[in-house]
Amino acid sequence: MARLDPHSYADDTHPRVASLDWEAGVDFSSRTLEAVATLELAAPAGGPLDLDTRDLAIASVTDDRGRAVPFTLHPAEPIFGARLSIELPEGTRSVAVRYRTAPDASALQWLEPAQTAGGKEPYLFSQCQAIHARSIVPVQDSPRNRITFTARLTVPKALRGLMAAAFDGREEQGDVAVESWHMPQPIPPYLLAFAVGDLASRELGPRSRVWAEPSVVDKAAWEFADVDQMITAGEALYGAYAWDRFDILVMPPSFPYGGMENPRLTFVTPTLLAGDRSQVRVIAHELAHAWSGNLVTNADAEHFWLNEGWTRYAELRIVEALEGEGDAALMAAICRRDLDEAVARFLESGQGGLTRLRTHLWGIDPDEAFSTVPYEKGNLFLHAIEGQIGRTRFDAFAKKYLDTFRFGSITTDQFLAFVEGELPGVLATIDAPVWIDGEGIPASAPTIRADRLDAVNAMPFDVPSVETGKALTSTEWNLWLERVPRPQAPTWCAAIDDRFALTTSGNMEVKVSWLRLALASGYDAVVPEVERVLGSVGRMKYLNPLYGALLAKKETQGLAKAIFERVQAGYHPIAKQVMRGRIEKAFAAG
Ligand code: BES
Ligand code: ZN
Question: Does the predicted TM-score (pTM) go above 0.70?
Fold first, then answer.
């Protein structure tokens, strides 16, 4: 018996599930999916088959001849969930599992109409990465096990279902509609994704449209108008786009991430709609995953850097192709700074293990281990390789890497063996083992600087003149605000907010940097806005620093807890868990 993935019961001595046929009825009143998952095996087989489940109520398991198949649903274990072990009769081709999901399934967020832009209809969406697919489908929930699928969702007729898959049609029957899809390319289970709501779309280009609630969709279409150029830039770097369409779904504000690279239908936070196209790099990032990640992914979460490190690298290259070297250089320098900060924090808090590229995650929840390190250290490591061989050879190497492992899921060792084969000796020159298994950042790491970052770093900390402030981009504002020493006097805070109205900025990056600075300065005038943001935006990138700023000061710790208690019902299950953990930790530390 071999379980290779630290977060899955999938056993590589058991038959492999090759495809899924999923039928699910969406019931907003009970907040459940009533579903049948038919798992087709790669070849007829018998014997044990272990599946991952979390909070699923299993009604029955039957084989392809309709016979009941014996199964055991084991007690739930932390992180994993409950193992469903099935005893397959010899020669089984497929098994059908009938089940119901729990109202608090970790992959789902069920929204009341009041939590949507339109305020009239409910909304439902999934977020399966890293290991939440098992809370909506019994599967071998490891990225090692890629599957194709077909799916049918039954939704209320007033709503529309969307799935990260090829759409096959919609049939209305009474007060419901049945919508169908298929996914011909094999995907890791973490890329299963769907949403149900009052949704409208606008065309963006020959292979892209944007979906959002009707009142948001025009703004979204403007913000993402350049997406086709991005796809073209990605293809020039990494070869033909393999997923046919690149559509975008703008989520409700509680979406916990900036973006999620669901194939054919990237999910993004509405905080990208800044009205200035300043956040489109998130689109470049999710698009880059069409190659790094969705085509070649990590075998399990210990090799997550292969997924996000490559994607950060490709994101920067796409931005460079579209916006020029200046923007890309500034971004790269910011990434380097973020990495240094994250590494210092982990080393100080005794979590140096999380600064390795290859991590050890047995017993650790991937949502808890999530950080910027695999993104930025991974990107920097790839830069170190590029530095040895030059960009032309590196680009050819990247293409061959993607070709070689196309539709695969690989480990760090497989990557290293490939590099050694293609670029003999390079790993030794850059001290690869120190990068991969060492803590911190090797002293030989490339230094990355940018004139525009140096210029912001040289700015004084007095309240900028109107002209200086107007000349700053939102990124520069953000960088400067992060550097301003704290606390600042209330008069300073009042003066800057009077002049530039940062509290009501439409750009969330700027707003949150300002609110943090203001909170650290004890400038209480911003508290109502902090409460409003914490109660209406679920993107963890913003929740983390705002709760962090409140928890950092004795005077506002209680406020952090009170706000959380009041608004947490509207948070996504993942955000709820992560923020509750932070608050409990802060209170335990006193
Ligand atoms: N796949 C990630 C989001 C993710 C990672 C979800 C791990 C669940 C577990 C996505 O591609 C991502 O990295 N999003 C970033 C955007 C970005 C530009 C780095 C985000 O959400 O901030
Ligand atoms: Zn990513």
Answer: yes
Asked if residue 343 lies in contact with residue 440, where contact means CB atoms within 8 angstroms, the answer is: yes
Instruction: Tell me how far apart the alpha carbons of residues 544 and 551 are, in angstroms, rounded to a whole number.
Output: 10
Report yes or no: 550 and 587 within 8 Å, Cβ to Cβ.
no
Q: Is 289 in the pocket of ligand 1 (CB under 6 A)?
A: yes
Give the whole-number percent of the chain exceeding pLDDT 70.
Answer: 100
Contact 515, 527 (CB under 8 A): no
| Active site members | 286, 375
Tokens in use for 590?
Answer: 């006193």
Encode burial over 297-320: b for 16+ CB neighbours within 10 A, e otherwise. bbbbbbbbbbbbbbbbbbbbbbbb
Quote the DSSP letter at residue 488: P
Render 213-253 in DSSP notation, one character per residue.
-TTTHHHHHHHTTTHHHHHHHHHHHH-S-TTS--EEEEPPT
pLDDT band at residue 1 using 50, 70 and 90 as cut-offs: low
The helix (run of H) or strand (run of E) holding residue 266 is strand 265-268
Q: What is the pLDDT of residues 51-101, one digit of tens each?
A: 999 999 999 999 999 999 999 999 999 999 999 999 999 999 999 999 999
Residue nearest to atom 5 of ligand 1 (CA): 129
Helix axes 554-567, 540-551, angle to 10 degrees: 140
Q: Is the pLDDT of residue 455 over 70?
A: yes
| pLDDT (tens digit per residue) in 204-260 | 999 999 999 999 999 999 999 999 999 999 999 999 999 999 999 999 999 999 999
- Ligand 1 centroid to Cα of residue 19, in Å, is 26
Provide the strand spans (E) within 336-419. 408-410
Q: Tell which residue, 281, 386, 295, 395, has the closest CA to residue 330.
A: 281
Q: Give the containing element (helix H, strand E) for 322.
A: helix 304-323
CA 262 – ligand 2 centroid, Å: 11
Environment class of residue 66 by beta-carbon count within 10 Å: exposed (0-12), middle (13-18) or buried (19+)? Answer: exposed
Is the CB of 307 within 6 Å of ligand 1?
no
Mean pLDDT computed over 475-489:
97
